[in-house]
Amino acid sequence: MVNFSHSKNSAFFRSAIxxxxxxxxxxxxxxxxxxxxxxTLRQALDAAWExxxxxxxxxxxxxxxAAKEKAAGSWISGEPVAGLAHRTDRLNKNDGFRxxxxxxxxxxxxxxxxxxxxxxxxxxxxDFDGQFxxxxxxxxxxxxxxxxxxxxxxxxLDLNKRKLLEANALxxxxxxxxxxxxxxxxxxxxxxxxxxxxxxxxAQAEGQLARVQSQWRSLTGLATxxxxxxxxxxxxxxxxxxxxxxxDHPALRQSQxxxxxxxxxxxxxxxxxxxxISVGVGIARERGSFAASNETTLRFxxxxxxxxxxxxxxxxxxxxxxxxASQADLDAVQRQLLAEVxxxxxxxLAARTVQxxxxxxxxxxxxxxxxxxxxxxxxxxxxxxxxxxxNEQFEASLSLARAAxxxxxxxxxxxxxxxxxx
Length: 422
Fold this sequence. Notes:
Elements: H1 10-21, H2 26-32, H3 41-50, H4 53-56, H5 58-72, E1 81-88, E2 98-107, H6 113-180, H7 185-220, H8 250-271, E3 278-287, E4 295-303, H9 309-377, H10 383-417
Antiparallel strand pairs: 1-2, 2-3, 3-4
Helix pairs in contact: 1-9, 2-6, 3-6, 5-6, 6-7, 6-8, 6-10, 8-9, 9-10
């Protein structure tokens, strides 16, 4: 019979519990055991952004906007047009009539069009900045997920290494007992099965860790995975109260920029009712006959296009449709962000509850394991009971380590939902 008395070594229990609780931090500590200091998530995000396609196109996109803004600040609405004409009577009478005319035409801004164009470009710049900020936030979410996966794989690998060491030690102990005739050979075979299981679990964890590290290198260009160490942002510190979505949230800023852009396009469509007025300046040199002298004349021309519904109505209707769609998108983004924050709050609360339960489970399973191990050494318990207690203590350690990582993952997800960068 197993004696579950309370005469146990309390110092041993405290040491065992604290040692196993420390495994929850293995994700960061083991990743830090590299020749170089591992990067932070912020450093990894900067590195990943630097090699991303969006970042590489950033300068050219800004130059494009700057060129459009420069053109909108000009006093003409487009490029000047030059014309050259020559007339002669050489093909019929050939009396010596000659005329050469040169003209340059400048398109002018219609009333209100330049201001509307500049407002449209300002909205495009806001939309441009919002798109890049949102892309960077999505990249941060990918890095947070990879860091959490790497931490989980590392913890599983380290715990299975410990389990393998313990299984090998138990196997050697049983082999000595079998030779001494104290245990049957089947007991040693059972522990050898545990060794094989631990080796298989180690190989699986190593493969998972290698896969995550490969994805990390592909995304960031860095060899070492950053530890998942984040604190709750100020706006998310109180999970009991759903904090409002910040106006600086990249997704909200980008949707609002799209709405402003649609409003600016509608204003531009309403202002730009006809093609631009153009002013032409020309000079002509004319000779009526071979005996006549050359005459030079100066000509001014004004061209006023007439607008109409055939030109304007489709553009205005398209701009109004885009405005309605942008408003609907903004409303949808606001609802989605509120739902994501609520879900992230619930996830963090659940993760912390699981962590508390896992910690208590580990305390109890460690106490049971210690008692049964002592009883087995005294010959009061059989090997299957000992193995069940060892396995329960291992599963409890693994559950607590995973729960600790899940809390860090939930914190990262809540910061992500609030649009906070690492």
